[in-house]
Design brief:
2 copies of one chain form a homodimer.
Chain A lengths: L1 E10 L2 E10 L1 H8 L2 E3 L9 H5 L10 H12 L5 E8 L4 E12 L2 H4 L1 E10 L8 H15 L4 E6 L4 H6 L3 E10 L2
Parallel strand pairs in A: 6-7
Antiparallel strand pairs in A: 1-2, 3-4, 4-5, 5-6
Chain lengths: 177, 177
Amino acid sequence: MTQTLFGIEKLNHKYFLFIVMQNNKDSTDDETYRVRKLEITDKKKGFMELLQQLTICDPVTDDEFQNRFKELESYGDDHVICVIENATSSKIIATGSVFIEKKFIRSCGKVGHIEDIVVDSSARGLQLGKKVVNFLADHARSTGCYKVILDCSADNKAFYEKCGFKEKEIQMVKYFV
Amino acid sequence: MTQTLFGIEKLNHKYFLFIVMQNNKDSTDDETYRVRKLEITDKKKGFMELLQQLTICDPVTDDEFQNRFKELESYGDDHVICVIENATSSKIIATGSVFIEKKFIRSCGKVGHIEDIVVDSSARGLQLGKKVVNFLADHARSTGCYKVILDCSADNKAFYEKCGFKEKEIQMVKYFV
């Protein structure tokens, strides 16, 4: 939203008319699309359905969800899942996670691992992915990590470059099921 | 070690001379190069010096090492560092780590992340890297992970393919220091 303000100010015995055009778009977006930590009630707000847009994500029972939530909560700052809730629809429309790996290298350094970034298909183009990634990277930095890493498809490389990441290695995988 | 055995056996009223050449190399190697979990005394056995062959790894004090060791130990099976000790020299000559990430996707599934694989430069060609990777992948499987992943340079791709891994995505990184 753009606000236009008019006023008159006296300076050196002269009167000046001033006009200020204030763009409130960012602050409005910040309120509508605030990033916060996952809450146990987010299952009812479509959190699992959002994850289904990312990969295989079969429904889980409330008990299974709560057990996993409490397990992750017990790690405190070492494993954070964040979400963006649409304030109007009360639906979760973006999420991502980061966990902090503790190493012996780099003077007992720490590395943040970002995982499971997804933005609802109806909410693309609002920079929500970038908000989520920045939130997680800031969290990793604030906990003392010397770097944050993630794995992505070649298609998503340009997006992560806009978030300040650079391509480094290749990811290898071994499936058990 | 190769053992040669001679013997005589009676079969259908005839005597047969038999010669058996038995190759004990594998079992001897298994004893000499056993994979085990990191112990707090491994700092004195060159564990940190081995990590220096991997990346930047400044020396840490005994207190720093013990604190990090105890921190990781508190995760139990969710973060395992393994080593191979040379039984003759009592030096740590290979290591690697795996930590178990707990997710909501894949029916609250789990993923093993393999990190910091290194084999002492004097012990290459003994398949110790493969032993370490297999140990860590087996651990991930035994804790219920549906997959295990790792990041590596293009140069190491062929090695991990021999360990049963396939290339999947690209790794992106953002450094803070």
